[in-house]
Design a protein that fits this description.
Structural class of chain B: alpha+beta
Helix content of chain A: 55-70%
Strand content of chain B: 25-35%
Number of strands of chain A: 0
Helix content of chain B: 25-40%
Number of helices of chain A: 8
Strand content of chain A: under 5%
Structural class of chain A: mainly alpha
Number of strands of chain B: 9
Oligomer: heterodimer
Radius of gyration of chain B: 21 Å
Order of helices and strands of chain B: HHHEHEEEEEEHEE
Radius of gyration of chain A: 20 Å
Order of helices and strands of chain A: HHHHHHHH
Strand order of the largest sheet of chain B: 3-9-8-5-6
Distance between the termini of chain A: 27 Å
């Protein structure tokens, strides 16, 4: 379902009950993009989460104060706030944080995530070991393509092609097709 | 929205040039359809990282360092199973993962798949191209306890594909006994 961003902005600035619903919808809409943006620029999942929530808070406050002149520019406005937040975070260098300590033990999944994780595991099981290694190094070890290439005896271009094909295969599998 | 997962992956890795990166970011914030694509992408990226973190591997098979990491994170029951044999073993409730060490002749063998086979011989899960320990002629397979408990006897079938087609290298079984003290 398509979201009308200009209507969201108009409703959020209108006040009252309609504003509350619009604010919630606005947060739900922009949260994934803000997370991705934060992870690209801050290289840390928790910092990206903080940036996402800080950005949304600033945007909501601005809308309540009626500071968005053109509702059609909501997307650009959120983007601008996010860029400022990223600069404020002042993280000049890439940092990597391992996620292992945050996770429960194997076999102790929460029901809400069990289905997707097992399905994803099934799809990953259909890839080659090389493809799985590239994905694990990219997203668990958070290595760059040149680092992966060096470790696995591949070219950087080959790493990127392998990653691309692996993600495409996962997407096909998760959408119900063959990987 | 023009960006698909490949470009999102390149963006996340910082591999886009500055001009395209800014253009993509504007698209992501201004396109009403973008969040759905981004959310699906992040769900998979995060899922890969979390599965790897939890299990030490992204397949049913694993090598030494991955097994060491799994032992640090989970209560592991390890069993050595010769080819063609079924080992009877209780799987206590405090065991998180069963790790089967499968002895197999890997001489001249390429990629190895692990199939989980039910009592009727049907494959209910397949893990393709698992890591193999050629120095010790073995394949190490990890199986979470509740998966191992699906069948009364869990059978792992090692399979390879060569010029002769599909070739079974061996079947290995774990017969699940009730834990001591249970009815």
């Amino acid at each position: 379902m398509s979201v009308d961003l200009s209507q969201l902005a108009t409703d959020a600035q209108a006040g009252g009950e309609m504003a509350s619903a619009a604010e919630a919808a606005l947060c739900a809409h922009f949260l994934p993009t803000l997370r991705l943006f934060g992870r690209r620029h801050l290289r840390d999942r928790q910092a990206a989460e903080d940036l996402a929530h800080d950005t949304l808070q600033t945007v909501i406050e601005a809308l309540r104060a009626g500071r968005l002149d053109d509702p059609n520019r909501l997307g650009g406005f959120v983007y601008g706030v996010a860029k400022n937040k990223a600069r404020e975070a002042g993280r000049a260098h890439a940092r990597r944080r391992r996620i292992a300590d945050e996770l429960p033990r194997p076999g102790s999944y929460e029901p809400a995530i069990v289905g997707f994780r097992y399905y994803l595991f099934g799809c990953l099981s259909q890839l080659t070991e090389r493809a799985r290694s590239v994905l694990a190094r990219s997203y668990f070890e958070q290595e760059t393509a040149p680092e992966i290439a060096d470790a696995m005896g591949m070219t950087t271009g080959n790493v990127r092609v392998t990653r691309h094909r692996a993600l495409a295969a996962l997407r096909r599998c998760l959408e119900g097709g063959e990987p | 929205m023009s960006a698909e997962w490949n470009e999102l992956a390149e963006y996340l890795a910082g591999e886009l040039d500055a001009a395209r990166e800014e253009e993509l970011e504007r698209e992501l914030f201004e396109d009403a359809h973008a969040p759905a694509v981004v959310e699906g992408f992040l769900e998979v990226v995060d899922g890969v990282a979390e599965l790897r973190a939890m299990h030490g591997t992204l397949s049913a098979g694993m090598l030494g360092p991955e097994l060491d990491r799994l032992r640090e994170r989970a209560n592991v029951l390890e069993l050595d199973i010769p080819v063609g044999e079924i080992i009877a073993a209780p799987l206590p409730e405090d065991v998180d993962v069963c790790v089967a060490h499968l002895a197999v002749d890997l001489a001249g063998v390429g990629a190895v798949d692990v199939e989980f086979v039910d009592a009727k011989g049907a494959t209910y899960f397949r893990s393709r191209d698992v890591p193999v320990d050629r120095d010790n002629d073995r394949v190490v397979v990890a199986c979470e306890r509740h998966i191992a408990m699906i069948e009364e006897t869990t059978v792992f079938r090692l399979v390879t594909h060569d010029r002769e087609g599909r070739r079974v290298l061996g079947d290995y079984g774990i017969r699940n006994l009730p834990p001591p003290g249970s009815s």
